[in-house]
């Protein structure tokens, strides 16, 4: 539980308007320790979805994995006990918040790999405006290397061409989906990296304990290009608010959780819930009514 004054109206307004807000020191050193221990366990026990997104000629890597929380007790503690769900709920002004999944992005020191610019919602097996990611670096990161955002791009009702993250697989790992996303594309993702200022791109210097919370429709990317002496370990958690419903798309889901969701009894159009997408937080106002 966090005290309400830690998320002020200005942050809620900024999240609604820009689709992204940086909140300093929302997580105690203990939570960073819990996640760091969890990540160490996780890297030794990746899920079947894990893969290296980039491996350069110097052996520098970018590791990605998702939905590991079922096997990582430290992540479970974080999901149920940390302030993340309440932060998400208050920023989205939702009456209840369900957990969707965790994803980690781990770059070894000096990795030059940049996350391609993209929106999250088109990849997800849910749809709705009230969705967000809590992005937490577990080590210090400079604004130039942190995840960056085009403020307000979550509100323009456009679905941009999806980047095929399945192509990021230098080890040719089997069973990595590669799809043609052309059927759902409305427009190419603009070349934001070529002129970030023109797009009003924002990012922040961040310390462990800080978080960036962003709407899943916002254009984001550009993280990486690390100095030789800096690694970047990021834990993200994805949260679902009031208007979200299960949505199985014809193509482009990545990671594709539709089979897992179906096996947990979730169907198209359902509200998220049950053991797979548990409700973690409910607004005190909602509980009273
Ligand atoms: O941290 C990164 O490089 C990518 C994060 C991201 O794209 C996400 O959480 O949706």
In short:
By secondary structure, the protein is α+β, with helices and mostly antiparallel strands.
β-strand amount: 15-25%
At the fold tier of CATH, the topology name is Jelly Rolls
Largest sheet: 8 strands, antiparallel
The poorly predicted ranges are none
How many domain regions? 1
Assign the CATH architecture.
Sandwich
Helix content, binned percent: 10-25%
* Ligand set: 2-oxoglutaric acid
Q: What is the CATH C-level name?
A: Mainly Beta
Along the chain, the helix and strand elements come as: HEHEEHHEEEEEEEEHEH
Q: Judging from the principal axes of the Cα atoms, what is the shape?
A: globular
Number of beta strands: 12
In whole angstroms, the N-to-C terminal distance is 20 Å
CATH homologous superfamily - what is it? q2cbj1_9rhob like domain
Q: Taking Cα atoms only, what radius of gyration do you get, to the nearest Å?
A: 18 Å
**Roughly what is the average pLDDT, rounded to an integer?**
93
Secondary structure class reads alpha+beta
Specify the number of helices: 6
Give structural notes.
There is one protein chain. It is globular, with a radius of gyration of 18 Å. Strands 1, 2, 3, 4, 6, 8, 10 and 12 form an 8-stranded antiparallel sheet that branches. Strand 2 (51-55) and strand 3 form a beta hairpin. The mean pLDDT is 93. It has helices at 9-18, 29-44, 73-81, 84-92, 258-263, 284-288, and strands at residues 20-23, 51-55, 61-66, 96-107, 126-127, 131-137, 148-149, 211-215, 220-221, 232-240, 245-246, 279-282. The protein has a single domain (4-255), classed as Jelly Rolls. Helix 2 packs antiparallel against helix 3. It contains 6 helices and 12 strands. The protein is an alpha+beta fold and 289 residues long. 45% of the residues are buried. Helices cover 19% and strands 21% of the residues. The protein starts with 8 loop residues before the first helix and ends with a helix. The site of 2-oxoglutaric acid has 11 residues, from strand 4, strand 6 and strand 10.
């Amino acid at each position: 539980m966090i005290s309400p004054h830690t998320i002020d109206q200005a942050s809620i307004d900024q999240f609604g308007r820009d689709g992204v807000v940086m909140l300093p020191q929302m997580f105690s050193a203990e939570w960073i320790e819990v996640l760091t221990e969890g990540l160490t366990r996780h890297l030794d026990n990746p899920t079947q979805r894990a893969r290296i997104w980039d491996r350069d000629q110097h052996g520098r890597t970018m590791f990605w994995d998702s939905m590991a929380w079922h096997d990582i007790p430290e992540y479970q503690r974080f999901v149920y006990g940390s302030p993340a769900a309440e932060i998400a709920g208050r920023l989205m002004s939702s009456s209840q918040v369900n957990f969707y999944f965790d994803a980690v992005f781990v770059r070894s020191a000096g990795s030059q790999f940049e996350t391609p610019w993209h929106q999250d919602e088109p990849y997800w097996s849910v749809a709705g405006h009230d969705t967000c990611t809590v992005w937490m670096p577990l080590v210090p990161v400079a604004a130039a290397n942190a995840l960056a955002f085009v403020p307000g791009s979550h509100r323009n009702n456009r679905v941009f061409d999806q980047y095929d993250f399945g192509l990021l697989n230098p080890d040719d790992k089997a069973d990595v989906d590669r799809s043609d996303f052309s059927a759902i594309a409305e427009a190419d993702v603009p070349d934001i990296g070529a002129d970030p200022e023109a797009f009003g791109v924002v990012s922040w210097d961040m310390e462990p304990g800080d978080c960036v919370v962003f709407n899943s429709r916002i254009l984001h990317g550009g993280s990486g290009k690390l100095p030789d002496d800096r690694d970047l370990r990021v834990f993200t958690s994805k949260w679902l608010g009031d208007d979200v419903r299960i949505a199985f798309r014809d193509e482009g889901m990545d990671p594709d959780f539709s089979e897992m969701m179906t096996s947990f009894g979730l169907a198209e159009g359902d509200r998220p819930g049950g053991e797979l997408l548990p409700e973690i937080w409910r607004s005190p106002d909602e509980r009273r009514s």
